[in-house]
Please model this.
Amino acid sequence: MSDALDYLLAVRKDAVASYFQFLKKSGKHLDEKTRSLLSVITKVDAKTEAGFKQYLMRALRAGNSADEILDALLVCMPTLGMSKIIWAVTIILQMDIPEFNPALIGKEKQWHKLAKVDDIAEGVSRFDYAGRACFVNKMGDGLQVFDSRCPHQVTHIPLLALADTTLTCPKHQWKFNIENGECIEKGNRPLNKIDYKIEGDTLYVYA
Ligand code: FES
Model:
C-alpha cells in the first residue's frame, strides 16, 4: 500500500475502509489467478511502479505463468497502448525474474539435480541451479527448500544475509525465519517453498 493510502487510512479510516471493502467485494466471483492478473493490468494502466511490482509477484504466486502474464498485457494492448506495455516489460527485465527468462518462457517446470544428500551440511546452505538459487535447511533427517528470491520484489538474498535463524533481505530488510520460511518482521509474505524429492542419494528440486 502507498504512503498516501496509509495516511488516509489513519486519518479517514471509515471512508478508506469502505473503499477497500468495495474492491474486495467487487471481485468475489473471480478466481485468485484472474483477480491478480486484473490487478497487474490496473497497475500498468496507472503506471505505479511499486504497485506493479507487488501485484506482479502476487500474480506469479497465485499460479500464473510468465506466459499468462505477458498474454494478459498484450490482450489489453487496445486500452494500455504499446508504451505502457514496454514500461511494464522494462520493469520486469530489471527485476530479473527467472520465470521471464526467454530460455524458460513456455517451458514446463522440471526436476533439477541439486546435490547428494550426504554432502549437504547440517543447517542452511545455498545452492545454484539452472540460473536460479535456493536455500536448503537440513535438520537431521528433515529438509526444507526455499527460493532464494525475496517474496517482496524478487531480490536475490545471499547466504551472508543469514544470522542465526533469521534471513534479512538486503533491499528493504524484510526478515524471515529460515526454519519455516515465515516473514517475522516488516513484510507480510513468507519465503516461497520449492518442492523437492530425494531419489537414491540425491536431492532434486522442482522449478
Ligand atoms: S525486495 Fe523488498 S524486502 Fe526484499
Notes: Residues 116 and 202 are 4 Å apart (CA to CA).
